[in-house]
């Protein structure tokens, strides 16, 4: 499951997040997933750390314990000085560049493929440390959309000769796959199951 955030209005977001977590918590119960097997991985940015704390509190998981882990490689994508911390009106321009060439870096920023490199490292950490666990990833729009893109494409490769996840991700690192990350657009505070 993934949670995407946006905005800085803490109280309203917390209330909305509590609502999503109640729904998500019910899903955990329905799937008979024990809270002892839930892990929360989050970006080091303050808004994701805050959300991860709220999630942990609602699920009654100790935030400072081993079930919660900051993973720097799931941080927000760096769009470069021409786009970073600018109006959201600039996003369509970035996404048009991504669709044209997901390996092209915006001036001084990260390409979609650069983010895939980071996310692959993060997945390797999660896979090695959290076997047999349900992982809740609290991150940002672009990385989460890219993550869903690569995991969906890798899932389709499940019958390929390379059966480990990292090999399948490597096989789908092609423009026709990576340029499609916007088809997995997320709403603010959305809770979505990945696999």
UniProtKB/TrEMBL annotation:
Pfam families: His_Phos_1
Organism expressing this protein natively: Sesamum angolense
High-level lineage: Eukaryota, Viridiplantae, Streptophyta, Embryophyta, Tracheophyta
Protein name in the entry: Uncharacterized protein
């Amino acid at each position: 499951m993934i949670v995407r955030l946006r905005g800085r209005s803490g109280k309203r977001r917390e209330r909305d997040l509590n609502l999503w977590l109640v729904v998500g918590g019910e899903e955990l119960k329905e799937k008979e997933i024990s809270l002892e097997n839930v892990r929360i991985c989050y970006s080091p940015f303050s808004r994701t750390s805050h959300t991860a704390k709220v999630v942990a509190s609602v699920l009654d998981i100790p935030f400072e314990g081993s079930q919660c882990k900051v993973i720097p490689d799931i941080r927000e994508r760096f769009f470069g000085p021409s786009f970073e911390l600018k109006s959201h009106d600039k996003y369509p321009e970035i996404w048009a560049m991504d669709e044209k060439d997901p390996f092209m870096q915006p001036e001084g920023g990260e390409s979609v493929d650069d983010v895939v490199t980071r996310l692959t490292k993060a997945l390797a950490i999660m896979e090695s440390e959290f076997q047999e666990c349900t992982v809740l990833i609290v991150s940002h729009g672009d990385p989460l959309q890219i993550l869903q893109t690569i995991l969906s494409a890798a899932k389709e490769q499940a019958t390929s000769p390379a059966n480990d996840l990292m090999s399948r991700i490597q096989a789908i690192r092609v423009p026709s796959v990576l340029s499609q990350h916007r088809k997995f657009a997320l709403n603010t505070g959305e809770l979505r199951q990945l696999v």
